[in-house]
Amino acid sequence: MIHSITEWIAGNYIELLGAIIGLIYIYFSVRQNILTWPVGLISSIFYIVIFFQTRLYAGMALQVYYAAMSIYGWYYWSKGKNTTTGGNVSVSFTRPIEWMMIAITFVVIFILIVFVLKNYTDSDVPNIDAFTTTAGIIATWMMARKLIENWVIWVFADLISVAMYIGKQLWVTAFLYLVFTVMAVLGFIEWRKNLKYSN
Q1: What whole-number distance in Å separates Cα of residue 7 and Cα of residue 158?
Q2: Does residue 196 register a pLDDT over 50?
Q3: pTM of the model
Q4: Helix, strand, coil shares of the chain as percentages rounded to 5?
Q5: For residues 64 and 140, what is the distance between their CA atoms, to the nearest angstrom?
Q6: Measured between alpha carbons, how far is residue 4 from residues 77, 172, 176 in Å?
Q7: Please, are residues 67 and 140 in contact by the beta-carbon 8 Å criterion?
Q8: Residue among 136, 127, 129 at smallest CA distance from 156
């Protein structure tokens, strides 16, 4: 039994480390801690390798995007200013004009990713991979801008990801995304408190 566990860990250590770092990342993001972003950068590097190995190419590309957004979020959270108060950026609701832009962006990105996956890769789950990737792109940008609804998008994206990773037999990652789903709910509750406090 112990030998089997040791053997499994040895064969899946990258996924295991990525999952542990991912949990630390989500904890920091719920707490609005600036360490969200450097930890997220490290997590992305691990998952670029994992998704390449399992042919989840859109997911891999998403991790590259996450790495770039980690740098943006790190800068924005530390240097960005609230246009109303002049202080650091605080949690806010997404404005109607932003929702309109988000919806259009979502559709365009989703269609492009599906097209690329179906025509230029050997992906066997192009639609699901494209959907979770697009949702992740949108939600990460919203998180970097401290828009509270990012957590709602994460809940749906993470639940769908759980099913996809189970299908790929990425058990640790599936469990991680199940935890992410719970943490996204907690993140919404926590940020909502901050929103009330800031108002």
Answers
A1: 28
A2: yes
A3: 0.79
A4: 80, 0, 20
A5: 12
A6: 44, 16, 21
A7: no
A8: 136
Nearest to 176 by CA among 10, 18, 50, 14: 18
Closest CA to 25 of 15, 16, 34, 36: 36
Give residue for tokens 């959907």: 131
Amino acid at 138: I
DSSP for residue 95: P
3-state secondary structure of 93: coil
SS3 category, 187 = helix
Average pLDDT value for residue range 118-133:
90
Q: Which residues contact 154 (CB under 8 A, 6 or more apart)?
A: 135, 139, 180, 181, 184, 187
Residue that the structure tokens 């990258």 belong to? 14
Tokens linked to 166: 């189970």
Q: Is the pLDDT of residue 86 over 50?
A: no
Q: Which two tokens stand for residue 195?
A: 């929103």
In angstroms, rounded to a whole number, what is the distance separating the alpha carbons of residues 186 and 152?
11
Q: Which of 52, 173, 172 is nearest to 123 (CA)?
A: 52
| Beta bridge mates, 147 | 92
pLDDT at res. 78: 85
